[in-house]
Amino acid sequence: MTKLLISLFVKNSGNVTDAKVRSAYGTLGGMVGIICNLLLFAGKFFAGIITGAISITADAFNNLSDAASSIITLIGFYIAGKPADEDHPFGHGRMEYVSGLIVSLAILLMGFELLKSSIEKIIHPENITFQIISVVILIVSILVKFWMAVFNKSIGNRIQSEAMNATATDSLNDCISTAAVLGGMLIFYFLGYNLDGVIGVLVACFVLWGGYGAIKDTLNPLLGELPDPQLVDNIEDMVMRHDMVIGVHDMIVHDYGPGRRIVSLHAEVPYTVDIMEAHDMIDHIEMRLMQEYQCEATIHMDPVVTDDEETTKTKEKIQTLIDQYDKTLSIHDFRMVTGKTHTNVIFDLVVPYGKKYDVKKILKDIRQKIREEMPGQYFAVIKVDRKTI
């Protein structure tokens, strides 16, 4: 069914990096969600009325909330597909993350409302009646929601969409919550125990947990998170395949929405190479990054001394001292400037994030270690880089 719908409504479906194709996927997912959830709401609301079960009625309004969420997702994909303009030079791709966040907040809101109603039902229990039609409706709902979870997850994986993945998570949560409601009805019919309110609380807690996870997945890209390690490795490997490049550092990946990345990095080249030849190579690498990874790339060229024995040995000695101090630290952009009274050893020190890394203490300790362990008048000039990949 998923493949059939995609073939009917998404043209050029394999080109998932194209904004129009992504928008078509989002539109398809949104429309399917709206139609299915409205039908499920109508069926469950009817079942809740004839049985008097608060858990069924709450589950019905959960589906109504999902229909609203699908509308939000639909709008989000529409806006995300708009091209760049004067006010948004990097496009509108992050709107897809925003719509996913709104969907996640809607999940949380519905979870709180369901929890409130269920607690009231425990405090003031009401009689419920068993109806076969309600059981049939709940079973059909579970099957439909399971298909919707698979459908949305399939689209989310195809286009790398957190909004669609959040919707898939919500659909799976609905499967479990509806199954719990169905279980409560069967327990009431066969054993005579009215667990309507208790099951409602359990379902609410499950919905809240799913909403919390969905918020994390959609909020992190908006705040700025570490890039995909595989993407970083692939970019570094591609750059290093060029013979003239002897090192890569200071890579930063900015995410402006799926398929809208801006990458900057420093490429180390021997200081003896022809500058025009090196510049041509850098242009070539930037073009390849655009073609292979659909990202705008800006590469800074760092000339590195490779044929000075003293510089090489000094760098190795300092790296050894730093490894002895903390193996998680590293250096780059190393150079030496010799004066009449002392020699400046200049380098960037890469320090990871974390509470254990006191930057002021690290700099003080390393400077002292260089003075103590290395003979001569060496003075360390250190610039701190924070590890971003």
Descriptive notes:
The chain is built from eleven helices and six strands. It has helices at 2-9, 19-51, 54-80, 95-123, 132-159, 162-191, 196-223, 229-240, 275-293, 309-325, 359-373; strands spanning 247-255, 261-270, 295-304, 330-338, 343-351, 378-386. A three-stranded mixed β-sheet has the order 1-2-3, covered by helices on one side. α2 (19-51) packs antiparallel against α3. The protein is elongated. The two termini are 40 Å apart. It comes from Candidatus Anaerostipes excrementavium. This is Cation diffusion facilitator family transporter. It holds the Pfam family Cation_efflux. It is found in: Membrane.
The coarse overall form would be: elongated
Beta-strand fraction estimate: 5-15%
Separation of the first and last Cα atoms: 40 Å
Helix content: 55-70%
Cα radius of gyration in angstroms: 29 Å
Strand order of the largest sheet: 1-2-3
